[in-house]
Write a structure and sequence with these properties.
- It is globular, with a radius of gyration of 24 Å.
- The protein starts with a helix and ends with a helix.
- The protein has twelve helices and no strands.
- It has 327 residues and is mostly helical.
Length: 327
């Protein structure tokens, strides 16, 4: 299994390089360049030309590519044209912010989705199954950006106007007085700011997981070994969560590798709406500013996280199914 994962990891290197090469040339073929944002009647063309030389934008495209590639291989992501800071200083901040949102969203997706799917499978064709199916399809078909706006409208704007006991923050990661709070107060404040974006990012995918979980559980609970477990007198909770669930998890684990890139792409909209200072928001601002090094660095991190998600799925297969471990 370890040798298989190592081969997959080595095979991902040319894939990542190909993705970044494509992004590099597409970005540079787009009209405009980062220097144009400084253009004004008070700035002479000579100054703009000097800025292009300072950024290396006056060199041929293939020369820029190989210089960028050599720096990239050495772990130097370059200098952000927009923020005027080394990208190696920016990336850890925005990556950690995105990971907080993504990990909480993954918990929402798989815990909520799996529980709903199990209830639907155990109570097949009941009123609870029909109601949960309707709710799951409703949220699954809802665009994340529209749902995010509705959450802000209801739980932030309307809740504040109506005087509800708990009005959730609509933007940012922390409150204004965050630096003056205690350690517990800081953790609680960060959690409050995470609730709305995590729900907006994860609830639609949780509905999809619920549908997959229902189908997988229905296939498993009608197997002979489940009937045998019930015939031995085991409780229904033990039969479902100890015997049926483990075998129904295999298709759900596949979704882990698929939903990670989906979450990262959805985070672009959600982070922008909630003003969450993560990679999604950073890559939007970098694209608008023609900040080539920043776009390349964030694209690499996102692509690497997608590859990691697929490797994690492969590793979890061996944990859930011993037959894979023995191959």
């Amino acid at each position: 299994m370890i040798a298989y994962l190592v081969r997959r990891l080595l095979g991902a290197i040319p894939l990542l390089l190909g993705i970044l090469t494509l992004i590099f040339f597409v970005l540079h073929m787009a009209p405009g360049d980062p220097v144009l944002k400084f253009a004004s009647p008070n700035v002479s063309p000579e100054v703009l030309d000097q800025m292009r030389r300072n950024f290396g934008l006056d060199q041929p495209l293939h020369v820029q590519y190989f210089k960028w590639l050599w720096s990239f291989v050495r772990g130097d992501f370059g200098y952000s044209f927009g923020q005027m800071r080394p990208i190696n200083e920016i990336l850890p901040e925005i990556l950690w912010n995105t990971l907080q949102l993504t990990l909480i969203s993954l918990v929402v997706i798989f815990v909520v989705g799996m529980l709903i799917g199990i209830v639907q499978a155990v109570r097949q064709y009941s009123l609870a199954d029909n109601v949960l199916t309707f709710i799951a399809l409703f949220f699954y078909s809802m665009p994340s950006f529209w749902f995010a706006l509705m959450l802000i409208l209801i739980f932030s704007l309307h809740a504040g106007q109506a005087g509800w006991p708990l009005s959730l923050p609509a933007s940012g990661m922390t409150s204004i007085d965050y630096d003056y709070l205690s350690a517990g107060g800081k953790a609680g404040d960060r959690l409050l700011h995470l609730i709305l974006p995590a729900i907006a990012l994860g609830i639609g995918s949780a509905a999809g997981v619920a549908r997959y979980m229902r189908g997988a559980m229905l296939e498993v609970i009608h197997q002979d070994y489940i009937r045998t477990a019930r015939a031995k007198g085991l409780s229904e909770r033990t039969v479902i969560f100890r015997h049926a669930l483990r075998n129904a998890l295999i298709p759900i684990i596949t979704l882990l590798g698929l939903y990670l890139p989906f979450l990262l792409s959805g985070a672009v909209l959600v982070e922008t709406i909630f003003a969450w200072p993560g990679m999604g928001r950073a890559i939007v601002e970098a694209i608008l500013a023609r900040d080539y090094p920043m776009v390349m660095a964030t694209s690499f991190v996102i692509a690497a996280m997608v590859v990691f998600g697929n490797l994690l799925s492969d590793a979890l297969y061996a944990v859930v199914d011993p037959r894979i471990r023995n191959d």
